[in-house]
Design brief:
Layout (H helix, E strand, L loop, with lengths): L1 H24 L10 H9 L27 H4 L27 H4 L31 E14 L22 E11 L7 E11 L25 E12 L3 E9 L19 H6 L3 E11 L4 E8 L13 E10 L4 E14 L10 E14 L4 E14 L2 E15 L4 E12 L10 E2 L2 E2 L3 E15 L2 E13 L15 E12 L1
Length: about 500
């Protein structure tokens, strides 16, 4: 009977001790001094610290190293008396005794002290550092970029670098982009309203306007031979990060390269991007994230390519696509636009978009390892005008290698075929005149130097050649050479 009573009491004490350790490991209560967590507490302290305690400095009171005499101020335990006295009547603990720690008696669960961390009201430090630190729901940011681009033929004038897009000026340094964005982003979880407005001024401004329909809006904002303004985005948005609807004027989802300088590795652009793809659209676009954000789907209606709200061409096109992340390293994106391209109504003697258009792009982005990235892009377009088919297509390949946090090198090889000589009209010229089947090739090598989050320096060299025409080194707008070497550098400052 006595044995049974002792076994029952021993089991009860063991259960209470086990519960105390479990509570301590869950972070609900301080651990018992006899628990392994308490001993680890001392091991984690720096022996050199004035407040730290080394295990060798602790008087364990026994020979096997069990700690029963920890400072109650360090463990959060109620004072149990001086362990060295060994007097249980005065609250002491002898070396062969362990006083059970009763969490419910010390702190009933309904009276547990709250340990909530104070919320930080200050904004977290951003990178890049923003000039306008709004610390609210509306963000204001942008960038400035300026540089110099020249050619080996010495054709130094306002169009000396043709047929390169954006980098056509060859008679001096240019202020390429002053970019300002005002944005209210959507909430990640709850449906909310958002908007975005982008404004650009600089040498890239005239190439970013709604030139597809020669809109009365930003198409007429050119202020000089080389400089002008544009508003490539002006839209409202509703939804969440998982599903949202965008209404207004916005960037295209076609292709790999974009207009904004910080979002491109190279200073110059591929022929495919400049001559074969739209830059912007006006209309409605939905975006859905599915399969735990592994799949993104777009679908919407727009009034053609590079047009604004007026839609005087009566264009009507579908814009959509999908992007699928196969794994953490590989993503494949397909995007397309097709429909009525416009009626060709001209303004100021310049023809506009017309006919029925079909165009798609496929982009494969593969992160080979931590340092090496490969990107493949293929574009194809067919524009049927008055019973004839005008085709163009291109293939771009990019290879990037990260040397360090500050240095990254890259290469781009591209081939663009203007099969009917309709995309690069001023340059597709040989002995028989305009409208020839010309193949354009280019190899570009570049370096990105990023000393901090707010500064990017992009030097590059580039060699272009053509088969079927002489589009380079233009004289009076007519090309005279079948190849040309380019070089340049720009600086981007983010704010």
């Amino acid at each position: 009977m006595k044995v049974h009573w002792k076994l029952t009491l021993g089991a009860a004490v063991a259960s209470i001790a086990f519960a105390a350790v479990a509570y301590a490991q869950d972070g609900l209560l301080p651990p018992s001094p006899a628990s392994p967590a308490a001993f680890n507490l001392f091991q984690d302290e720096d022996p050199e610290s004035p407040n730290g305690t080394s295990p060798s400095d602790i008087d364990t009171g026994n020979d096997n190293g069990t700690e029963n005499g920890a400072d109650p101020d360090q463990t959060g335990m109620p004072d149990q008396g001086d362990p060295d006295q060994g007097n249980p009547d005065q609250g002491g603990v002898t070396p062969d005794q362990t006083l059970p720690y009763l969490p419910d008696a010390a702190f009933p669960m309904d009276e547990m002290p709250e340990m909530e961390e104070e919320e930080e009201e200050e904004c977290e430090e951003e990178c890049p550092v923003r000039l306008f630190n709004t610390c609210g729901c509306i963000d204001i940011y942008g960038h400035m970029s300026f540089g110099y681009y020249d050619n080996s033929e010495g054709t130094n004038n306002g169009v000396g670098n043709q047929p390169l897009g954006f980098r056509n000026v060859a008679d001096g340094a240019t202020f390429d982009q002053y970019w300002l964005t005002v944005e209210k982003a959507l909430d990640d979880c709850c449906p909310s309203w958002g908007f975005r407005v982008d404004y650009i001024f600089g040498a890239d401004g005239p190439d970013t306007t709604a030139f597809g329909d020669q809109s009365k809006f930003d198409f007429r904002w050119q202020s000089s031979r080389d400089y002008g303004s544009a508003m490539p985005q002006l839209y409202a948005q509703y939804g969440t990060s998982d599903f949202n609807v965008k209404v207004g004027h916005f960037y295209t989802i076609i292709g790999y390269e974009v207009v904004a300088a910080p979002d491109n590795f190279f200073y110059s652009h591929a022929y495919t991007m400049y001559y074969g793809e739209p830059f912007t659209h006006t209309g409605v676009l939905t975006e859905s994230s599915l399969m735990c954000d592994q799949l993104t789907v777009w679908a919407g209606w727009t009034n053609g390519w590079d047009s604004y709200f007026g839609d005087h061409l009566n264009a009507s096109t579908f814009l959509g696509g999908a992007s699928y992340s196969v794994n953490d390293c590989l993503a494949v994106t397909y995007a397309t636009v097709w429909g009525d391209h416009g009626d060709g109504t001209a303004r100021r003697g310049v023809a506009s978009n017309q006919g029925d258009i079909y165009m798609h792009s496929v982009v494969v982005d593969y992160q080979i390892n931590e340092c090496l990235q490969y990107v493949f892009q293929s574009d194809y377009a067919n524009n049927r005008v008055n019973g004839t088919h005008e085709e163009w297509y291109g293939v771009n390949q990019y290879l990037f290698y990260t040397l360090s946090d500050c240095y990254k090198v890259g290469s781009r090889f591209e081939c663009f075929n203007d099969a009917d000589g309709v995309r690069i009209i001023n340059s597709d010229v040989n002995e028989t005149g305009i409208g020839n089947d010309v193949d354009y090739y280019a190899i570009t090598l570049g370096l990105n130097y990023t000393p901090n989050c707010n500064l990017i320096v992009r030097p590059e060299i580039r060699w272009d050649w053509a088969e079927g025409g002489t589009p380079f080194a233009p004289v009076a707008g007519i090309g005279t050479e079948d190849n040309q070497f380019y070089y340049g550098l720009d600086v981007i400052v983010l704010y």
